[in-house]
């Protein structure tokens, strides 16, 4: 269904990453920062690179350029940190506003142009493929001189928008990668993450990456079954961009559960035992997929109450502690969403209307208070909805 391939970019700002989880949910590649200017080495570069490589992601390294530092020293430092590692994609040069420019940093169009061309030329002279340029149109258009040279480099564009396409710098008519958000919750990463799209299919991406093999992916045992036509969005709310739709043709289709979200999302962790997974302020547990495919909830809160049903009005029956891991047997709540592929979320139910039912691969597990699957399907066929509120 997706017409793009997702990947992430990371630096020392990300704590240790569970790269196996990142790969298991379908992220295919990663840009890892090596250096910043001519003096700073990213302290987590080796750690991130090794973890991502072991998980089977296709890799590139990027350097944050500073116009206050000599070009040769910047590129030499990047290549020193990269060492003999073999990227699966071209290296990338980060061209954007320097938050710490230092004394006397040249900021004219001529200076930015000279420094950028110098870094690109030096990387190619060192034997690397023509580098990728990372930038945003709002920065590039006002800080660099126009040149036919730029479009010879693949563009990695930054533009955070819910629109279907990014705003491009004037020197390009298309892009190779689009950093469309810095706020994604990626399984295996604590906190928000930058996520990027490659426009094309998995086969297109593999061809671009020189035929890199696809990583093995764990198939979660917890599934959802499509009960009614419903929108597919980039995040767990109707505020997120619609990217596709599950239609009448998809009724009965089963999708894997990789994550749970929403403003009132609950998970069943045992007989008559439910815990809040997500609230308006954020997640209280994160979803993990074990090596055997079992879907687990990892508690993030210091204390997480357990209730007899999916809501705070049900009797409290216990407490879970931070880092406790529990099997996720069912999903419920008045605003519960599931992520079944990278960047693809679907509402379980909205306004009392159910779109997805949960299964464990062998038997259906109805959301508390909802009608049976057969009754729901019959009702939806009578209504013949063409769209949804999700």
Share of residues in helices: 10-25%
Net shape: elongated
CATH architecture of the largest domain: Alpha-Beta Barrel
CATH class of the largest domain: Alpha Beta
Q: What does the average pLDDT come to?
A: 86
Largest sheet: 8 strands, mixed, barrel
Distance between the termini: 18 Å
Strand order of the largest sheet: 1-2-4-5-6-7-8-9
Q: By helix and strand content, what is the structural category?
A: alpha+beta
* Low-confidence regions: 361-387
Tell me what you see in this structure:
The protein has 390 residues and is α+β, with helices and mostly antiparallel strands. The protein folds into two domains: 4-208, Alpha-Beta Barrel (TIM Barrel), CATH 3.20.20; 223-383, no CATH class. Helices cover 18% and strands 36% of the residues. The protein is built from seven helices and 27 strands. An eight-stranded mixed barrel has the order 1-2-4-5-6-7-8-9, surrounded by five helices. Strands 14, 15, 16, 19, 20, 22 and 23 form a seven-stranded antiparallel sheet that branches. α3 (71-82) packs across α4. It is elongated, with a radius of gyration of 23 Å.
């Amino acid at each position: 269904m997706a017409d793009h391939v997702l990947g992430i970019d990371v630096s020392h700002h990300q704590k240790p990453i569970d790269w196996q989880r990142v790969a298991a949910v379908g992220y295919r590649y990663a840009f890892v920062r090596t250096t910043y200017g001519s003096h700073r080495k990213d302290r987590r570069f080796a750690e991130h690179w090794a973890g991502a490589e072991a998980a089977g992601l296709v890799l590139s390294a990027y350097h944050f350029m500073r116009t206050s530092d000599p070009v040769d020293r910047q590129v030499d430092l990047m290549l020193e940190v990269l060492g003999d590692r073999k990227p699966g994609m071209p290296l990338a040069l980060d061209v954007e506003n320097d938050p710490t420019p230092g004394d006397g940093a040249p900021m004219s169009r001529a200076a930015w142009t000279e420094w950028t061309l110098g870094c690109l030329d030096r990387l190619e002279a060192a034997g690397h493929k023509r580098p990728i340029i990372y930038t945003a149109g709002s920065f590039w258009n006002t800080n660099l001189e126009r040149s036919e040279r730029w479009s010879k480099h693949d563009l990695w564009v930054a533009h955070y928008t819910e629109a279907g396409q990014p705003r491009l710098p004037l020197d390009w008519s298309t892009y190779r990668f689009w950093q469309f958000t810095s706020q994604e919750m990626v399984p295996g990463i604590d906190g928000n993450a930058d996520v990027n799209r490659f426009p094309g299919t998995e086969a297109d991406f593999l061809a671009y990456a020189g035929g890199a093999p696809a990583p093995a992916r764990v198939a979660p045992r917890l599934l959802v079954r499509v009960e009614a036509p419903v929108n597919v969005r980039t995040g767990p709310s109707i505020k997120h961009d619609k990217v596709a739709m599950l239609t009448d043709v998809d009724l009965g289709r089963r999708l894997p559960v990789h994550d749970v979200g929403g403003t009132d999302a609950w998970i069943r962790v045992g007989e008559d035992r439910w815990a809040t997974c997500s609230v308006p302020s954020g997640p209280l547990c994160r979803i993990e997929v074990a090596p055997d495919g079992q879907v687990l909830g990892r508690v993030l809160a210091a204390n997480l109450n357990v209730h007899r049903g999916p809501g705070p009005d049900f009797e409290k029956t216990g407490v879970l502690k931070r880092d406790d891991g529990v099997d996720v047997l069912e999903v419920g709540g008045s605003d519960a969403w599931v992520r079944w592929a990278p960047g693809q979320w679907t509402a379980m139910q909205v306004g009392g209307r159910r779109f997805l039912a949960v299964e464990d691969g062998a038997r259906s597990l109805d959301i508390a208070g909802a009608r049976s699957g057969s009754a729901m399907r019959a009702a939806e066929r009578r209504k013949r909805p063409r769209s949804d509120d999700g």
